[in-house]
Amino acid sequence: MTVKDAVAQRFIELCRMRNIKPNELACMSGVTPSTVYSMLDSRRRDVSIITIKKLCDGLDLTLGEFFSTPQFDSLEQEIK
Q1: In the chain, where are the structural domains located?
Q2: Residues in the chain with pLDDT < 70?
Q3: Which 3 state secondary structure label does DSSP give 41?
């Protein structure tokens, strides 16, 4: 799994837990819905840390809370 895929999965999981849709996440975070859907699109390669921070702010999460999960701890090294 790539870092980008793990980020997308984490936001999907958080939306499910809070019973909100991606459009609602966008509204809560002050980003456009297209930004959220682009981040969730598996064909897109990158997501910026600024976008992640804004989405976390909308969910009232710190970056530490967002990234402190087993799915991020188990990612393979990017440098090979």
Answers
A1: 3-72
A2: none
A3: coil
Question: Domain 3-72 in CATH: superfamily?
Answer: lambda repressor-like DNA-binding domains (1.10.260.40)
pTM of the model: 0.89
Cα–Cα distance, 27 to 25 (Å, whole number): 5
Q: What is the pLDDT of residue 79?
A: 80
CB distance 59 to 14 below 8 Å: yes
pLDDT of res. 57: 97
Residues counted in the chain: 80
The whole-angstrom separation of Cα 45 and Cα 75 is 16
CB neighbour list of residue 19: distance below 8 Å, 6 or more residues apart: none
